């Protein structure tokens, strides 16, 4: 019972630490998608992200191949290089006195136009035109430049997000093409901004706020690559995803029954089967059909990613990925946080190992050995919630579900959103703007294909915020509604910032806030306040089962997510060479999570490549 008591005492630690990962994309509760970085988000079982990531890579490669054969004129008007006329030195008023500037004020013309090719009705977007050569500007000049880039960036972002919204709420070939074209336009805009940033001399920029904005604008990621290399980068990712998305295996007990796909076939087997041999067969075959086939392409992608990092003025791609966290000691901080949580994880691990040894026998699971990865209820052993039926401390004492009471009281999707709004108002936060209610999609639209993955949207204009969700009347969606509206509350609170700051404090912060709200809303006390619980079930067995279920999902995820990115960081840095790719992966999995492969592995295998985020080249933390 020690592990159970410990879970009760430190449950708050579990829940806060569980958001160490940037986005637990394999959970359907992980909803927040950053519209400003739309195609860099991704996750298993999220059709929205996969469809667009794959399509965008294909579309980008096709466009760039065409551009190599014929010149494009769509962007000729952007950032045209115009020689500025010298101006007479002039003064400006400050505090009733006249000061003389150290250098002339420079006017940044806004005659450049950035127009969407996909919609001729789109209003032109002004973008600054800067003279060629190195730029040494005063702080006031730079402030003026940033203001104009803020306007242009916000408008182009708005067009991009609107195109993505149109596609997701009405999936068809036309809306998909427009979404892809608008994303290409936005990427081109970012490249043009980067070209300006690389020419700026920052030696005399003393305002820390200006320096920070310039720093973020100077980090476009892979978009900094020359066109030929960017095409190669996208093509490698696209080819690896083609392998991943088309992979299928044959059934264990029916060799002629082939074509089993990851979702839903293999996921069902891994979550429900308790047959050791069937699970082992499925585990091995999925990796043979995915990881082994993408290894060579991954090696090439590492080289191209590191080239992009150098163009972003960092040493390697791991530094480029860690840049948004603004912490030079991020790796140490992550590993230190894990060491604090690890004692609890080790107790949970020992308890689960005992339960599984009782089922499979001591000849297969030793008293002190790592757990075999294939029997944990998940293809990657990253979440153990699917084996709760084997491990639950108090069978039959299920934690509460208020769905029947919601249906009895006549809840509707619209009513669920209004209740969520009242929750935030009670915390002295803002009500939702009228445009939110007019433009959000909170139910599946009849006869109109829609990507139902719940998501919160910031349209980059400080006015338009929406949620897209195919809401069902049940407790799970009731909590999700609050989760998504928490994202919108965060949007509203930073809407007055420049666009470069209109984002989470770091890539994991949005989810951390929304998860905190979700946990608060799901407590029996709050549900009782809403009249959804008539008789409290606040007893030890129910509470233990509830907290144990959270630990089997969130706590077990931490060592996997940490291992996946530590492994890639080591490869990017060159401390792990290709001769040890697979060996290093299992070293990390065993050291951090106490998990081992079910059979002997070698360097002909490439087991990390069986996880979507590796071929998609998406950070996991």
Automatic annotation (TrEMBL):
<keyword id="KW-0732">Signal</keyword>
<feature type="binding site">
    <location>
        <position position="483"/>
    </location>
    <ligand>
        <name>Zn(2+) 1</name>
    </ligand>
</feature>
<keyword id="KW-0378">Hydrolase</keyword>
<dbReference type="GO" id="GO:0005886">
    <property type="term" value="C:plasma membrane"/>
</dbReference>
<dbReference type="GO" id="GO:0046872">
    <property type="term" value="F:metal ion binding"/>
</dbReference>
<keyword id="KW-1015">Disulfide bond</keyword>
<dbReference type="Pfam" id="PF01401">
    <property type="entry name" value="Peptidase_M2"/>
</dbReference>
<feature type="signal peptide">
    <location>
        <begin position="1"/>
        <end position="25"/>
    </location>
</feature>
<protein>
    <recommendedName>
        <fullName>Angiotensin-converting enzyme</fullName>
        <ecNumber>3.4.-.-</ecNumber>
    </recommendedName>
</protein>
<feature type="glycosylation site" description="N-linked (GlcNAc...) asparagine">
    <location>
        <position position="170"/>
    </location>
</feature>
<dbReference type="InterPro" id="IPR001548">
    <property type="entry name" value="Peptidase_M2"/>
</dbReference>
<dbReference type="GO" id="GO:0004180">
    <property type="term" value="F:carboxypeptidase activity"/>
</dbReference>
<feature type="active site" description="Proton acceptor 1">
    <location>
        <position position="484"/>
    </location>
</feature>
<keyword id="KW-0862">Zinc</keyword>
<keyword id="KW-0121">Carboxypeptidase</keyword>
<feature type="active site" description="Proton acceptor 2">
    <location>
        <position position="484"/>
    </location>
</feature>
<keyword id="KW-0479">Metal-binding</keyword>
<feature type="region of interest" description="Disordered">
    <location>
        <begin position="80"/>
        <end position="135"/>
    </location>
</feature>
<feature type="compositionally biased region" description="Polar residues">
    <location>
        <begin position="107"/>
        <end position="117"/>
    </location>
</feature>
<feature type="binding site">
    <location>
        <position position="511"/>
    </location>
    <ligand>
        <name>Zn(2+) 2</name>
    </ligand>
</feature>
<feature type="binding site">
    <location>
        <position position="511"/>
    </location>
    <ligand>
        <name>Zn(2+) 1</name>
    </ligand>
</feature>
<feature type="binding site">
    <location>
        <position position="487"/>
    </location>
    <ligand>
        <name>Zn(2+) 2</name>
    </ligand>
</feature>
<comment type="similarity">
    <text>Belongs to the peptidase M2 family.</text>
</comment>
<keyword id="KW-0645">Protease</keyword>
<feature type="disulfide bond">
    <location>
        <begin position="250"/>
        <end position="258"/>
    </location>
</feature>
<feature type="binding site">
    <location>
        <position position="483"/>
    </location>
    <ligand>
        <name>Zn(2+) 2</name>
    </ligand>
</feature>
<dbReference type="GO" id="GO:0008237">
    <property type="term" value="F:metallopeptidase activity"/>
</dbReference>
<keyword id="KW-0482">Metalloprotease</keyword>
<dbReference type="GO" id="GO:0006508">
    <property type="term" value="P:proteolysis"/>
</dbReference>
<feature type="compositionally biased region" description="Low complexity">
    <location>
        <begin position="80"/>
        <end position="92"/>
    </location>
</feature>
<keyword id="KW-0325">Glycoprotein</keyword>
<feature type="active site" description="Proton donor 1">
    <location>
        <position position="613"/>
    </location>
</feature>
<dbReference type="GO" id="GO:0008241">
    <property type="term" value="F:peptidyl-dipeptidase activity"/>
</dbReference>
<feature type="disulfide bond">
    <location>
        <begin position="452"/>
        <end position="470"/>
    </location>
</feature>
<feature type="active site" description="Proton donor 2">
    <location>
        <position position="613"/>
    </location>
</feature>
<feature type="binding site">
    <location>
        <position position="487"/>
    </location>
    <ligand>
        <name>Zn(2+) 1</name>
    </ligand>
</feature>
<feature type="binding site">
    <location>
        <position position="325"/>
    </location>
    <ligand>
        <name>chloride</name>
    </ligand>
</feature>
